[in-house]
Structure formats: structure tokens, C-alpha cells
Design brief:
Layout: H1 6-17, H2 35-39, H3 51-58, H4 82-90, E1 97-100, H5 106-123, E2 127-131, H6 148-159, E3 166-171, E4 181-186
Parallel strand pairs: 1-2
Antiparallel strand pairs: 2-4, 3-4
């Protein structure tokens, strides 16, 4: 990896100052740029600007910079065996506990989910039923007005402090809520 030049290091420090971490993490040290490293840096070959950048500048928009997206994290391995999936699909598994997110705002639903996961893990539950409500129907006039909690669940679970305790998330059987609910299968406790 190449070292950041002083301008890049300053810009990076300003960007990092605006970021709020999901979990408490000690602040990273600002990357130091050695004067010798700057002086010995090889010159960068100028490249032709992209057509999109030329159009953006011509249209009077602020200068665009190329943002390199980080690749998504590798998907978690499917840790359920075939018998678990069959039992969930057939509705044979009875949830140990349930969390109902109906009538909550996004923030209160997120807090309720986190608290419910904590309690389920502490009790040693294996299957948690998460009732989110049905997704909006395709013919709905305002599809954006419904399903915000349901749409956020995958992100919440992936970024949760309990993510390592979750073995799988599956759609619920109709007797447990069908499209309006999910099974959260928790890993067996070590102990």
C-alpha cells in the first residue's frame, strides 16, 4: 500500500472526524507521513478525466472525486444443516420466544430487537420469532410508507453486537406469521 501524502492524510482525518462508529472503538492514530517518503514518491502519471467528470464540471456541479467502494464482507456461511431447514420450512419448529415490532418507530424497533436478542441469548433460546409485519404489496400506492422496519432488519442483524450468536435468519412458516415474520436461529451456547 502506498503512503498518504499530507493533503490526503488531512482529508482523511477530517472525514474520520465526521464518522460515528457503530461500536466503541479506540480512535485510530493519524497516519504519519515521513518527509522522506513524500520526497521519494514516484510521480503520478496524469490520466485523462472520465466523461462523467467532464460533464459534471461543465454542468457547474462541485468537482467529483472518484470513490472506491469497499467490497462487501463475505457472506456468512450457512450454518444450518438440511434437517433444520426442513423443520423450519414445514413449520415443525416452535419458537422459544418472540419479538413483535408492530407499532414501533425505527429507533424503538432497533432497541427492542437488540434487547430481545440479549434476553434470548441469556436464556439459551435457539429459535426466536421476529414479527416485523408484511412487506408492502406491489400494487400499493405508497410502497415506501410500509415495510421500513422489515427492510432494515438484515442490516441491523449484520451490524448487531449479537451477530456472532446468530446462526441463520429464515422466513417464517405461515402458522408463525409467514411473510410478516422471520425465524432467527441462534447458535448453541458454549458452556
Amino acid at each position: 500500500m502506498r503512503q498518504l501524502n499530507p493533503d490526503e492524510a488531512d482529508l482523511w482525518a477530517r472525514v474520520m472526524a465526521t464518522v460515528k462508529p457503530l461500536r466503541a472503538v479506540p480512535p485510530a492514530a493519524r497516519p504519519a507521513v515521513a518527509p522522506a517518503a513524500v520526497a521519494s514518491a514516484t510521480p503520478v502519471k496524469a490520466t485523462k478525466p472520465s466523461k462523467a467528470l467532464v460533464r459534471a464540471v461543465a454542468a457547474g456541479r462541485p468537482s467529483a472525486t472518484r470513490v472506491v467502494a469497499m467490497p462487501p464482507p463475505p457472506p456468512r456461511q450457512n450454518t444450518l444443516d438440511g434437517s433444520w431447514d426442513k423443520r423450519l420450512t414445514r413449520g415443525i419448529v416452535s419458537p422459544d420466544s418472540a419479538i413483535d415490532l408492530h407499532g414501533h418507530t425505527l429507533s424503538s424497533a432497533h432497541a427492542l430487537l437488540d434487547d430481545g436478542l440479549s434476553r434470548a441469548i441469556a436464556r439459551g433460546d435457539r429459535v426466536l420469532l421476529l414479527v416485523t409485519g408484511k412487506p408492502p404489496r406491489p400494487e400499493s400506492e405508497r410502497p415506501h410508507a410500509r415495510g421500513a422496519i422489515r427492510a432494515a432488519i438484515a442490516d441491523w442483524l449484520g451490524a448487531s453486537r449479537h451477530a456472532d450468536a446468530i446462526a441463520a435468519v429464515r422466513g417464517a412458516h405461515p402458522r408463525h406469521g409467514g411473510q410478516g415474520a422471520l425465524y432467527i436461529v441462534l447458535r448453541r451456547g458454549r458452556g
